[in-house]
Write a structure and sequence with these properties.
Layout lengths: L1 H13 L1 H36 L4 E6 L1 E3 L5 E3 L8 H9 L3 E6 L1 E2 L4 E4 L2 E4 L3 E4 L2 H5 L4 E4 L4 H6 L3 E5 H8 L2 H4 L3 E2 L5 E4 L4 E4 L4 E7 L4 H7 L4 E4 L10 H8 L2 E6 L4 H16 L6 E3 L1 E2 L2 E2 L1 H42 L1 H9 L4 H38 L18 H20 L3 H4 L3 H6 L2
Parallel strand pairs: 8-15, 10-14
Antiparallel strand pairs: 1-16, 1-17, 2-3, 4-16, 5-8, 6-7, 9-14, 10-15, 11-14, 12-13, 18-19
Helix pairs in contact: 1-2, 2-11, 2-13, 2-14, 3-10, 11-12, 11-13, 11-14, 13-14
Amino acid sequence: MKKFFTMMIRQFKDSPFKMGLTLIAVSLGAFILVLSFNITDIIEKEVENQLNTNGIIVQVANASWDSDKSVDYTKPSEWDTSIQNYLLSDTEEIEISAIISQSMFNQFTYDGTSYDLRNSVATEQTYFEIFDLDLVSGVLMSQEDIDLGLKKVWISEETAQIIFGSAENAIDKWIQPPGKILTRGINNKSQNVVTQYKITGVYETPSEIKRKVYGIGDLIVPYTSMLPSSMNVEFAKDMLSGSLVVKSNQNSIEDVEQSISQVVYQNYGEDVDLLVWEGSINGESSYMQDLRETVDVFTVSINILGLTLMLVSTLGLFSVMLVEALNRKRHICIERSLGASKMRIIKEFWSWSIAMSFMGVIIGTTIAYFSFPSILEIISPLFGELSNQINYEIGFSFIALIKSISLILVFGGVFGVIPVIPVVRENIAEGIKEE
Protein backbone atom coordinates (compact mmCIF):
# COMPACT_ATOMS: atom_id res chain seq x y z
CA MET A 1 0.00 0.00 0.00
CA LYS A 2 2.85 2.37 0.86
CA LYS A 3 4.50 1.67 -2.47
CA PHE A 4 1.22 2.28 -4.22
CA PHE A 5 0.75 5.73 -2.69
CA THR A 6 4.40 6.53 -3.32
CA MET A 7 3.90 5.72 -7.00
CA MET A 8 0.76 7.86 -7.14
CA ILE A 9 2.39 10.85 -5.49
CA ARG A 10 5.46 10.58 -7.70
CA GLN A 11 3.41 10.41 -10.86
CA PHE A 12 1.33 13.46 -9.92
CA LYS A 13 4.49 15.32 -8.84
CA ASP A 14 6.52 14.48 -11.95
CA SER A 15 3.71 14.84 -14.50
CA PRO A 16 0.77 16.67 -12.92
CA PHE A 17 -0.61 17.84 -16.26
CA LYS A 18 -0.43 14.40 -17.83
CA MET A 19 -1.89 12.65 -14.80
CA GLY A 20 -4.66 15.23 -14.57
CA LEU A 21 -5.52 14.75 -18.24
CA THR A 22 -5.47 10.97 -17.79
CA LEU A 23 -7.85 11.17 -14.84
CA ILE A 24 -10.12 13.53 -16.77
CA ALA A 25 -10.08 11.21 -19.78
CA VAL A 26 -10.98 8.16 -17.69
CA SER A 27 -13.73 10.14 -15.94
CA LEU A 28 -15.09 11.27 -19.30
CA GLY A 29 -15.02 7.70 -20.60
CA ALA A 30 -16.88 6.49 -17.51
CA PHE A 31 -19.37 9.34 -17.83
CA ILE A 32 -20.18 8.54 -21.46
CA LEU A 33 -20.32 4.76 -21.01
CA VAL A 34 -22.58 4.97 -17.95
CA LEU A 35 -24.89 7.35 -19.81
CA SER A 36 -25.01 5.26 -23.00
CA PHE A 37 -25.73 1.99 -21.20
CA ASN A 38 -28.44 3.56 -19.04
CA ILE A 39 -30.12 5.41 -21.91
CA THR A 40 -30.30 2.30 -24.09
CA ASP A 41 -31.53 0.22 -21.17
CA ILE A 42 -34.36 2.68 -20.53
CA ILE A 43 -35.35 2.85 -24.21
CA GLU A 44 -35.42 -0.94 -24.60
CA LYS A 45 -37.48 -1.41 -21.44
CA GLU A 46 -39.90 1.36 -22.40
CA VAL A 47 -40.54 -0.14 -25.83
CA GLU A 48 -41.15 -3.60 -24.37
CA ASN A 49 -43.39 -2.13 -21.67
CA GLN A 50 -45.43 -0.35 -24.32
CA LEU A 51 -45.76 -3.35 -26.62
CA ASN A 52 -45.78 -6.32 -24.27
CA THR A 53 -47.08 -5.88 -20.74
CA ASN A 54 -46.15 -9.07 -18.90
CA GLY A 55 -46.64 -11.12 -22.04
CA ILE A 56 -47.72 -10.61 -25.60
CA ILE A 57 -50.93 -9.33 -27.20
CA VAL A 58 -52.03 -10.85 -30.51
CA GLN A 59 -54.96 -10.73 -32.87
CA VAL A 60 -56.66 -14.06 -33.62
CA ALA A 61 -59.03 -14.32 -36.58
CA ASN A 62 -60.98 -16.85 -38.59
CA ALA A 63 -59.51 -15.40 -41.76
CA SER A 64 -56.82 -15.57 -44.43
CA TRP A 65 -54.41 -13.06 -45.94
CA ASP A 66 -55.35 -11.20 -49.09
CA SER A 67 -52.76 -10.59 -51.77
CA ASP A 68 -52.16 -7.09 -50.37
CA LYS A 69 -51.60 -8.56 -46.85
CA SER A 70 -54.97 -7.26 -45.62
CA VAL A 71 -57.21 -9.57 -43.59
CA ASP A 72 -59.97 -11.44 -45.43
CA TYR A 73 -62.41 -12.54 -42.73
CA THR A 74 -64.41 -15.74 -43.16
CA LYS A 75 -68.14 -14.95 -42.97
CA PRO A 76 -70.04 -16.43 -41.30
CA SER A 77 -67.46 -17.44 -38.72
CA GLU A 78 -66.41 -21.10 -38.63
CA TRP A 79 -66.26 -21.00 -34.85
CA ASP A 80 -68.56 -19.61 -32.16
CA THR A 81 -68.20 -17.79 -28.84
CA SER A 82 -67.11 -21.06 -27.21
CA ILE A 83 -63.69 -20.40 -28.74
CA GLN A 84 -62.94 -18.09 -25.80
CA ASN A 85 -63.69 -20.79 -23.23
CA TYR A 86 -61.60 -23.29 -25.17
CA LEU A 87 -58.62 -20.93 -25.33
CA LEU A 88 -58.76 -20.25 -21.59
CA SER A 89 -59.38 -23.82 -20.47
CA ASP A 90 -57.32 -25.86 -22.95
CA THR A 91 -54.08 -23.89 -22.70
CA GLU A 92 -52.22 -22.24 -19.84
CA GLU A 93 -50.63 -19.63 -22.12
CA ILE A 94 -53.80 -17.59 -22.76
CA GLU A 95 -54.80 -15.26 -19.92
CA ILE A 96 -57.71 -13.29 -21.35
CA SER A 97 -59.49 -12.60 -24.65
CA ALA A 98 -62.09 -10.27 -26.13
CA ILE A 99 -64.22 -10.34 -29.26
CA ILE A 100 -63.32 -7.36 -31.40
CA SER A 101 -64.47 -5.79 -34.66
CA GLN A 102 -64.57 -2.44 -36.39
CA SER A 103 -67.42 -0.16 -35.36
CA MET A 104 -69.44 2.18 -37.55
CA PHE A 105 -67.93 5.21 -35.81
CA ASN A 106 -65.34 6.87 -38.05
CA GLN A 107 -66.83 10.13 -36.82
CA PHE A 108 -69.69 11.24 -34.61
CA THR A 109 -71.95 14.22 -34.20
CA TYR A 110 -72.58 16.09 -30.98
CA ASP A 111 -74.69 19.21 -30.66
CA GLY A 112 -74.75 19.66 -34.44
CA THR A 113 -70.97 19.43 -34.88
CA SER A 114 -69.17 16.45 -36.44
CA TYR A 115 -65.89 15.14 -35.05
CA ASP A 116 -63.50 12.75 -36.80
CA LEU A 117 -62.05 9.73 -34.99
CA ARG A 118 -58.69 8.14 -35.65
CA ASN A 119 -60.07 4.73 -34.78
CA SER A 120 -63.01 3.10 -33.03
CA VAL A 121 -63.55 -0.44 -31.82
CA ALA A 122 -66.55 -2.67 -31.12
CA THR A 123 -65.65 -5.12 -28.38
CA GLU A 124 -66.49 -6.35 -24.86
CA GLN A 125 -65.50 -5.49 -21.29
CA THR A 126 -62.32 -7.63 -21.20
CA TYR A 127 -60.81 -5.40 -23.90
CA PHE A 128 -60.18 -2.73 -21.26
CA GLU A 129 -58.25 -5.22 -19.12
CA ILE A 130 -56.14 -6.51 -22.00
CA PHE A 131 -54.83 -3.03 -22.81
CA ASP A 132 -54.82 -1.68 -19.23
CA LEU A 133 -57.36 1.03 -20.07
CA ASP A 134 -58.15 2.34 -16.60
CA LEU A 135 -61.43 4.16 -16.14
CA VAL A 136 -61.16 7.89 -15.42
CA SER A 137 -64.84 8.65 -15.06
CA GLY A 138 -68.17 6.85 -15.36
CA VAL A 139 -68.70 3.09 -15.17
CA LEU A 140 -67.11 0.16 -16.97
CA MET A 141 -68.79 -1.87 -19.69
CA SER A 142 -70.74 -4.78 -18.24
CA GLN A 143 -71.93 -8.16 -19.47
CA GLU A 144 -75.46 -6.74 -19.51
CA ASP A 145 -74.35 -4.13 -22.05
CA ILE A 146 -73.22 -6.98 -24.29
CA ASP A 147 -76.22 -9.24 -23.72
CA LEU A 148 -78.73 -6.47 -24.40
CA GLY A 149 -76.72 -4.69 -27.09
CA LEU A 150 -77.16 -1.36 -25.32
CA LYS A 151 -76.34 1.82 -27.22
CA LYS A 152 -73.47 3.03 -25.07
CA VAL A 153 -69.98 4.31 -25.81
CA TRP A 154 -66.72 4.78 -23.91
CA ILE A 155 -64.28 7.43 -25.09
CA SER A 156 -60.66 8.26 -24.31
CA GLU A 157 -59.81 11.03 -21.87
CA GLU A 158 -58.09 12.95 -24.66
CA THR A 159 -61.27 12.87 -26.78
CA ALA A 160 -63.39 13.91 -23.79
CA GLN A 161 -61.14 16.88 -23.02
CA ILE A 162 -61.09 18.10 -26.63
CA ILE A 163 -64.86 17.96 -27.13
CA PHE A 164 -66.38 18.30 -23.67
CA GLY A 165 -63.65 20.04 -21.70
CA SER A 166 -63.17 17.24 -19.18
CA ALA A 167 -63.89 13.55 -18.57
CA GLU A 168 -66.65 14.37 -16.07
CA ASN A 169 -68.44 16.68 -18.52
CA ALA A 170 -68.58 13.92 -21.14
CA ILE A 171 -70.57 11.47 -19.01
CA ASP A 172 -74.25 11.00 -20.03
CA LYS A 173 -73.85 13.03 -23.20
CA TRP A 174 -75.53 11.64 -26.33
CA ILE A 175 -73.61 11.34 -29.59
CA GLN A 176 -74.60 10.09 -33.01
CA PRO A 177 -72.67 7.90 -35.47
CA PRO A 178 -72.55 8.87 -39.16
CA GLY A 179 -76.05 9.08 -40.65
CA LYS A 180 -78.60 11.41 -42.09
CA ILE A 181 -81.32 13.57 -40.65
CA LEU A 182 -84.32 13.25 -42.97
CA THR A 183 -86.96 15.89 -43.61
CA ARG A 184 -90.53 14.87 -44.23
CA GLY A 185 -94.07 16.24 -44.11
CA ILE A 186 -95.61 19.52 -45.18
CA ASN A 187 -93.39 21.62 -42.95
CA ASN A 188 -90.26 19.61 -43.83
CA LYS A 189 -89.97 18.55 -40.22
CA SER A 190 -86.57 16.97 -39.58
CA GLN A 191 -86.33 13.52 -38.07
CA ASN A 192 -83.18 11.83 -36.83
CA VAL A 193 -83.30 8.26 -38.11
CA VAL A 194 -79.92 7.25 -36.61
CA THR A 195 -79.81 5.80 -33.09
CA GLN A 196 -77.84 7.89 -30.63
CA TYR A 197 -75.34 6.50 -28.15
CA LYS A 198 -74.85 7.52 -24.55
CA ILE A 199 -71.33 8.21 -23.23
CA THR A 200 -71.11 5.93 -20.20
CA GLY A 201 -67.42 6.04 -19.33
CA VAL A 202 -64.11 7.73 -20.05
CA TYR A 203 -60.88 5.74 -20.00
CA GLU A 204 -57.27 6.84 -19.69
CA THR A 205 -55.77 7.76 -23.06
CA PRO A 206 -53.38 5.01 -24.22
CA SER A 207 -49.85 5.87 -25.28
CA GLU A 208 -49.37 6.84 -28.90
CA ILE A 209 -47.25 3.74 -29.43
CA LYS A 210 -49.97 1.38 -28.17
CA ARG A 211 -52.60 3.22 -30.16
CA LYS A 212 -50.68 2.93 -33.41
CA VAL A 213 -49.54 -0.67 -32.91
CA TYR A 214 -52.78 -2.18 -31.65
CA GLY A 215 -55.34 0.20 -33.13
CA ILE A 216 -56.79 1.10 -29.71
CA GLY A 217 -59.83 3.22 -30.33
CA ASP A 218 -60.63 6.79 -29.35
CA LEU A 219 -64.13 5.36 -28.94
CA ILE A 220 -65.29 1.90 -27.84
CA VAL A 221 -68.79 0.40 -28.13
CA PRO A 222 -70.25 -3.01 -27.15
CA TYR A 223 -69.91 -5.19 -30.24
CA THR A 224 -73.58 -6.21 -30.03
CA SER A 225 -74.76 -2.59 -30.03
CA MET A 226 -74.25 -2.35 -33.78
CA LEU A 227 -76.83 -5.09 -34.50
CA PRO A 228 -80.54 -4.61 -35.10
CA SER A 229 -82.49 -5.08 -31.87
CA SER A 230 -84.63 -7.73 -33.55
CA MET A 231 -81.67 -10.06 -34.17
CA ASN A 232 -81.09 -13.06 -31.93
CA VAL A 233 -78.30 -12.07 -29.55
CA GLU A 234 -76.69 -15.49 -29.24
CA PHE A 235 -76.67 -15.92 -33.01
CA ALA A 236 -75.17 -12.46 -33.37
CA LYS A 237 -72.43 -13.24 -30.87
CA ASP A 238 -71.46 -16.39 -32.75
CA MET A 239 -71.45 -14.49 -36.03
CA LEU A 240 -69.12 -11.81 -34.65
CA SER A 241 -66.79 -14.15 -32.73
CA GLY A 242 -64.47 -14.73 -35.70
CA SER A 243 -62.09 -12.00 -34.55
CA LEU A 244 -60.45 -11.87 -31.11
CA VAL A 245 -57.70 -10.00 -29.34
CA VAL A 246 -55.82 -12.25 -26.93
CA LYS A 247 -53.31 -11.64 -24.16
CA SER A 248 -50.79 -14.40 -23.45
CA ASN A 249 -48.20 -14.83 -20.71
CA GLN A 250 -45.66 -15.92 -23.34
CA ASN A 251 -43.16 -13.58 -25.03
CA SER A 252 -42.87 -15.45 -28.31
CA ILE A 253 -45.55 -15.06 -30.95
CA GLU A 254 -44.54 -18.43 -32.41
CA ASP A 255 -45.33 -20.18 -29.10
CA VAL A 256 -48.64 -18.35 -28.77
CA GLU A 257 -49.61 -19.18 -32.35
CA GLN A 258 -48.82 -22.85 -31.83
CA SER A 259 -50.95 -23.03 -28.66
CA ILE A 260 -53.90 -21.27 -30.30
CA SER A 261 -53.67 -23.45 -33.40
CA GLN A 262 -53.85 -26.63 -31.34
CA VAL A 263 -56.98 -25.43 -29.53
CA VAL A 264 -58.75 -24.24 -32.68
CA TYR A 265 -57.97 -27.31 -34.81
CA GLN A 266 -58.81 -29.69 -31.99
CA ASN A 267 -62.26 -28.16 -31.43
CA TYR A 268 -63.24 -26.99 -34.92
CA GLY A 269 -61.22 -29.12 -37.32
CA GLU A 270 -58.02 -28.55 -39.26
CA ASP A 271 -59.78 -26.99 -42.25
CA VAL A 272 -60.61 -23.83 -40.29
CA ASP A 273 -58.91 -20.67 -41.54
CA LEU A 274 -56.75 -19.22 -38.77
CA LEU A 275 -54.50 -16.18 -38.55
CA VAL A 276 -52.48 -15.02 -35.54
CA TRP A 277 -50.51 -11.80 -35.71
CA GLU A 278 -49.19 -8.83 -33.74
CA GLY A 279 -50.87 -5.59 -34.65
CA SER A 280 -54.37 -4.22 -35.04
CA ILE A 281 -57.59 -5.73 -36.30
CA ASN A 282 -56.68 -4.41 -39.77
CA GLY A 283 -53.50 -6.48 -40.03
CA GLU A 284 -49.86 -6.67 -39.03
CA SER A 285 -48.29 -3.49 -37.75
CA SER A 286 -45.34 -2.20 -39.76
CA TYR A 287 -45.04 0.52 -37.14
CA MET A 288 -44.14 -2.09 -34.52
CA GLN A 289 -41.43 -3.60 -36.70
CA ASP A 290 -40.06 -0.18 -37.64
CA LEU A 291 -40.02 0.89 -34.00
CA ARG A 292 -38.11 -2.19 -32.86
CA GLU A 293 -35.60 -1.85 -35.71
CA THR A 294 -35.07 1.83 -34.89
CA VAL A 295 -34.50 1.02 -31.22
CA ASP A 296 -32.07 -1.78 -32.12
CA VAL A 297 -30.05 0.51 -34.42
CA PHE A 298 -30.06 3.31 -31.83
CA THR A 299 -29.02 0.92 -29.05
CA VAL A 300 -26.14 -0.60 -31.01
CA SER A 301 -24.93 2.79 -32.27
CA ILE A 302 -24.89 4.57 -28.92
CA ASN A 303 -23.31 1.58 -27.14
CA ILE A 304 -20.56 1.33 -29.76
CA LEU A 305 -19.95 5.07 -29.37
CA GLY A 306 -19.76 4.73 -25.60
CA LEU A 307 -17.40 1.75 -25.78
CA THR A 308 -15.16 3.48 -28.32
CA LEU A 309 -14.82 6.62 -26.22
CA MET A 310 -14.21 4.52 -23.12
CA LEU A 311 -11.41 2.61 -24.88
CA VAL A 312 -9.82 5.84 -26.08
CA SER A 313 -9.94 7.30 -22.57
CA THR A 314 -8.42 4.23 -20.94
CA LEU A 315 -5.52 4.31 -23.40
CA GLY A 316 -4.26 7.21 -21.29
CA LEU A 317 -3.65 4.69 -18.52
CA PHE A 318 -1.57 2.63 -20.91
CA SER A 319 0.62 5.66 -21.59
CA VAL A 320 1.08 6.43 -17.88
CA MET A 321 1.89 2.81 -17.01
CA LEU A 322 4.31 2.54 -19.92
CA VAL A 323 6.28 5.56 -18.71
CA GLU A 324 6.27 4.23 -15.14
CA ALA A 325 7.42 0.77 -16.23
CA LEU A 326 10.29 2.12 -18.32
CA ASN A 327 11.40 4.56 -15.60
CA ARG A 328 11.36 1.81 -12.98
CA LYS A 329 12.93 -0.86 -15.18
CA ARG A 330 16.17 -1.09 -13.16
CA HIS A 331 14.29 -0.87 -9.86
CA ILE A 332 11.97 -3.69 -10.93
CA CYS A 333 14.94 -5.91 -11.83
CA ILE A 334 16.49 -5.22 -8.40
CA GLU A 335 13.22 -6.16 -6.72
CA ARG A 336 13.12 -9.41 -8.66
CA SER A 337 16.74 -10.19 -7.70
CA LEU A 338 15.70 -9.82 -4.06
CA GLY A 339 12.93 -12.38 -4.48
CA ALA A 340 9.92 -10.43 -5.76
CA SER A 341 7.89 -12.54 -8.17
CA LYS A 342 6.76 -11.39 -11.60
CA MET A 343 3.14 -11.70 -10.50
CA ARG A 344 3.72 -9.45 -7.50
CA ILE A 345 5.15 -6.66 -9.66
CA ILE A 346 2.39 -7.06 -12.24
CA LYS A 347 -0.14 -6.92 -9.42
CA GLU A 348 1.34 -3.60 -8.25
CA PHE A 349 0.81 -2.03 -11.67
CA TRP A 350 -2.62 -3.63 -11.94
CA SER A 351 -3.62 -2.18 -8.58
CA TRP A 352 -2.40 1.25 -9.65
CA SER A 353 -4.34 1.20 -12.93
CA ILE A 354 -7.46 -0.15 -11.22
CA ALA A 355 -7.22 2.62 -8.63
CA MET A 356 -6.94 5.26 -11.36
CA SER A 357 -9.86 3.67 -13.20
CA PHE A 358 -11.92 3.58 -10.03
CA MET A 359 -11.22 7.25 -9.34
CA GLY A 360 -12.39 8.03 -12.85
CA VAL A 361 -15.48 5.85 -12.38
CA ILE A 362 -16.45 7.70 -9.18
CA ILE A 363 -16.05 11.11 -10.80
CA GLY A 364 -17.69 10.15 -14.11
CA THR A 365 -20.60 8.26 -12.53
CA THR A 366 -21.31 11.06 -10.07
CA ILE A 367 -21.49 13.64 -12.86
CA ALA A 368 -23.61 11.26 -14.99
CA TYR A 369 -26.03 10.62 -12.13
CA PHE A 370 -26.83 14.29 -11.53
CA SER A 371 -26.89 15.27 -15.22
CA PHE A 372 -28.77 12.20 -16.46
CA PRO A 373 -32.34 13.62 -16.38
CA SER A 374 -31.29 16.80 -18.22
CA ILE A 375 -29.29 14.92 -20.86
CA LEU A 376 -32.12 12.42 -21.35
CA GLU A 377 -34.56 15.27 -21.93
CA ILE A 378 -32.20 17.03 -24.36
CA ILE A 379 -31.74 13.96 -26.58
CA SER A 380 -35.37 12.83 -26.26
CA PRO A 381 -36.35 14.15 -29.74
CA LEU A 382 -34.19 11.32 -31.14
CA PHE A 383 -36.65 8.83 -29.65
CA GLY A 384 -39.60 10.12 -31.70
CA GLU A 385 -43.03 9.36 -30.22
CA LEU A 386 -41.41 7.29 -27.49
CA SER A 387 -40.08 10.49 -25.94
CA ASN A 388 -43.54 11.30 -24.57
CA GLN A 389 -43.56 8.08 -22.53
CA ILE A 390 -40.19 8.48 -20.80
CA ASN A 391 -39.95 9.54 -17.18
CA TYR A 392 -37.06 11.99 -17.21
CA GLU A 393 -36.62 11.76 -13.45
CA ILE A 394 -35.98 8.02 -13.61
CA GLY A 395 -32.80 6.83 -11.90
CA PHE A 396 -30.00 4.64 -13.16
CA SER A 397 -30.56 1.02 -14.04
CA PHE A 398 -28.58 -1.10 -11.58
CA ILE A 399 -27.68 -3.70 -14.22
CA ALA A 400 -26.57 -1.06 -16.74
CA LEU A 401 -24.51 0.67 -14.06
CA ILE A 402 -22.74 -2.55 -13.03
CA LYS A 403 -22.01 -3.46 -16.67
CA SER A 404 -20.50 -0.07 -17.48
CA ILE A 405 -18.39 0.12 -14.30
CA SER A 406 -17.16 -3.45 -14.78
CA LEU A 407 -16.07 -2.75 -18.36
CA ILE A 408 -14.16 0.37 -17.36
CA LEU A 409 -12.32 -1.44 -14.54
CA VAL A 410 -11.55 -4.46 -16.74
CA PHE A 411 -10.12 -2.40 -19.60
CA GLY A 412 -8.33 -0.05 -17.21
CA GLY A 413 -6.74 -3.03 -15.48
CA VAL A 414 -5.72 -4.66 -18.76
CA PHE A 415 -4.18 -1.49 -20.19
CA GLY A 416 -2.35 -0.93 -16.92
CA VAL A 417 -0.77 -4.39 -16.95
CA ILE A 418 0.30 -4.68 -20.61
CA PRO A 419 3.23 -2.18 -20.38
CA VAL A 420 4.90 -3.93 -17.42
CA ILE A 421 4.80 -7.45 -18.88
CA PRO A 422 7.85 -6.96 -21.20
CA VAL A 423 9.77 -5.35 -18.29
CA VAL A 424 9.27 -8.27 -15.85
CA ARG A 425 10.39 -10.62 -18.61
CA GLU A 426 13.68 -8.70 -18.97
CA ASN A 427 16.88 -10.48 -17.97
CA ILE A 428 17.55 -9.43 -14.36
CA ALA A 429 21.31 -9.00 -14.74
CA GLU A 430 21.00 -6.91 -17.90
CA GLY A 431 18.25 -4.83 -16.39
CA ILE A 432 20.32 -3.99 -13.27
CA LYS A 433 23.28 -2.91 -15.38
CA GLU A 434 21.17 -0.38 -17.31
CA GLU A 435 21.41 3.28 -16.22
